[in-house]
Amino acid sequence: MGKPKIGIALGGGAARGWAHIGVLRALERAGLAPDIVAGTSIGAVAGGCYVAGRLDELEKFTLSLTKKRVFGFLDFNFAGSGLITGKRLCDELDEYLRPVLIEDMERKFVAIATEMGTGHEIWLSKGRLVNAMHASYALPGIFRPVNISGRWLMDGALVNPIPVSVCRALGARVVIAVNLNSEYFGKGAVVPDQEAHAEPELPDENMALPAGNGRAAKRLLHRQFFGRSDGAPGISSVMMDAFNIIQDRIARSRLAGDPPDLMISPKLSQMGLFDFHRGSEAIAAGTAATEKELDDIQQSIDTLAA
Questions:
Q1: Is-catalytic flag, 155?
Q2: Which of 41, 165, 265, 300 does the annotation list as catalytic?
Q3: 279 Cβ neighbours under 8 A, 6+ residues apart
Q4: Residue 265 appears among annotated catalytic residues
Q5: CA of 76: how far to CAs of 1, 210, 216, in Å?
């Protein structure tokens, strides 16, 4: 029957998504390169760069990030539909991927997005790769949505966090799922009979942006976005954690109904969703998790090829 087509579903997970680089590298080295790539959110970024032959550039960019540089990419936008416009990140991707059209790439690739209003699951399989990536990672409330062909699109993890179903629809016979949040599964327990005793209120802070002091304004934005030193969560932590809980519930439901043939689960519980500066750790975790599954992946392929 010949070698069966391999599909890989790259899940969402913000900064943990750098682990996808290690996963894809390990599969390539083992001669198990996927024929079909479907990605959601950060999975669409890693998968798109891989299929476009730009994984080296993405890895170089990832390893160059520091906390300061990450903050520099946050182009705050208080008048729009998201805290961040995303233009600086999009421009960075555009530098390497400007001419790339999805339909011209050698392997099949789909980026998953969610349509505002209808909640439709949108499969972006044609057009500019950068636009598809941008729409797929447009986290509600953080990044403003992206208008593509008259549809306002946002993060695909709202409807399909780990797009196994897409790989199967495109003809993959062996589907590998990469779950960046597997260590959080099962933590959604019910805690009954809790008393609603209020904690002491935190002291109020003057949240007006300091006039004429750029450095002070940046410090204030940083504190509001990433949280205060006393442990109070910042805007990004609240929104990302809420989104991660939703994504976890949806992923469990969808994987139960359409399970992959194999699951790769990098150990990333110690990595925060905004720890984009810890790329080397995430890549190493992705590599290690994949190498543990290589024998099972090869066995599955051999069984279907027999």
A1: yes
A2: 41
A3: 18, 21, 59, 62, 63, 65
A4: no
A5: 54, 16, 15
